[in-house]
Design goal:
Blueprint: H1 17-20, E1 27-28, H2 40-52, H3 62-76, E2 85-88, H4 91-102, E3 108-113, H5 117-125, E4 129-134, E5 136-140, E6 143-147, H6 150-155, E7 161-167, H7 179-191, E8 195-199, H8 220-223, E9 226-230, E10 244-247, H9 251-261, H10 270-282, H11 284-308, E11 314-316, E12 323-327, H12 337-345, E13 347-348, E14 350-351, E15 362-366, H13 371-386
The protein binds pyridoxal-5'-phosphate.
Length: 388
């Protein structure tokens, strides 16, 4: 049975950075948006909002805050109040402002590498220091599984370290951290008085029967030191509609965030509120179709790489996100791997070096594409490797 996600949509010249950065001969599998149409109920809600025709100021959305509080309760057993929610135009700005809010000038912000590049720049943008701890990687055949090096994690913390930016599920390594991993990280943060900035933007994108656990839901003690960042943008493919949200149950954390953002961070727009409300109230059926499709894309890539790529290539089997992480170091490529694949295979991928030192020699591949497009890109990569 063909799937709605099999349809290849021409995104050239639609303002898409993914498709327009490179030439038309390139298949792009890089930046984290999907080549899929958003859910119909969300599109209908946007049409209705446009048809109303008046776009006056909107500061906040109490009904949406209620929906989010309910969602946290039903999905995670996490009880929050609508007033704990702060609406945001996006999450990268919130990462930057969180560094300003929760660390002082020159103080350190910890993160686990390899990691989504804006994590690495956020402390620097705010005049704070980047503190990194590499994730551990275990190899099982050609499959890489990342874990936390708790000794290195705690050893990286100095008296000047003030905050930890957690990525859960983790971009780019695709881990959905378990309760015990989260508890151990939280215990270390509590012991060293670190604020946890928990980026959970990929929380709905679960490919296996794993459970997403918001770190703040572990206990009131952990909630008291945590600001959680979420958005409908990855799940429902609406990043340019500009809506995310933070949840901070500790009023002091909310006040410190509001103090640094006031007048600097714009309110989300009407289309963002409209899309988010529809996404969280009317689009579960679409998401229930998306996840198996992404999972099958993941398995297709795993099989293809195992059968057709040189045996030195290693890759993750992501439990969450639609991002895959390929280790090409064993190929001794003549150029940075993303450059090699762009020039030789005409496939656009993210270069691992942008994700920190621990990412050098890797590429990140986006599974959020029609399967035929993914296979075409893999065949191009196979031919490029065969010609080495
Ligand atoms: C972990 C993570 N946080 C944040 C973002 C971007 O969020 P936004 O578009 O809301 O700035 C991404 C996008 O790929 C991401 O992977």
């Amino acid at each position: 049975m063909p799937s709605r996600f099999d349809t290849r949509i021409n995104r050239h010249h639609t303002g898409s950075i993914k498709w327009d950065l490179f030439g038309e001969d390139v298949l792009p599998l890089w930046v984290a948006d999907m080549d899929f149409e958003s859910p119909e109920p969300l599109l209908r809600a946007l049409h209705r909002r446009v048809d109303h025709g008046v776009f006056g100021y909107q500061f906040g959305a109490p009904a949406l805050a209620e929906v989010l509080a309910q969602r946290m309760e039903t999905r995670y057993g996490w009880t929050i109040q609508p007033q704990d929610v702060i609406f945001l135009p996006n999450l990268v700005s919130a990462l930057n402002f969180s560094c300003l809010a929760y660390a002082g000038p020159g103080e350190g912000v910890l993160m686990q590498t390899p990691v989504y590049p804006p994590f690495l720049s956020a402390p620097l943008n705010a005049g704070r220091q980047v503190v990194t701890s590499d994730l551990l990687v275990r190899e099982q055949g050609n499959v890489l599984r990342y874990e936390i090096d708790f000794v290195a994690f705690e050893a990286a913390i100095t008296p000047q370290t003030r905050a930890f930016i957690l990525c859960n599920p983790h971009n780019p390594v695709g881990r959905v951290w378990t309760r015990s991993e989260l508890q151990r990280m939280a215990d270390i943060c509590l012991r060293h008085n670190l604020t946890i900035i928990s980026d959970e933007i990929h929380c709905d994108l679960l490919l296996d029967s794993v459970q997403h656990i918001p770190i703040a839901s572990l206990s009131p003690e952990v909630a008291a030191i945590t600001i959680t960042l979420m958005a409908p943008s990855k799940t429902f493919n609406v990043p340019t509609l500009g809506l995310g949200f933070a949840i901070a149950q500790n009023k002091d954390l909310r006040d410190r965030f509001e103090k640094v953002t006031n007048g600097f961070l714009p309110h989300p727009g009407a289309m963002g509120f409209t899309a988010a409300t529809a996404a969280y109230t009317e689009c579960q059926a679409w998401l229930d179709e998306l996840l198996p499709y992404l999972k099958e894309n993941r398995d297709t890539v795993m099989d293809f790489v195992t059968e057709n790529f040189p045996s030195q290539v290693r890759l993750t089997c992501p439990e969450g996100t639609y991002l895959m992480w390929l280790d090409l170091r064993g190929l001794n490529l003549p150029q940075a791997p993303s450059k090699f694949l762009l020039e030789t295979a005409k496939v656009g991928l993210n270069d691992g070096a942008d994700f920190g030192e621990a990412g050098k020699g890797f590429v990140r591949l986006n599974l959020g594409a029609p399967r035929s497009q993914l296979i075409e890109a893999l065949e191009r990569m196979q031919a490029a490797f065969a010609a080495l």
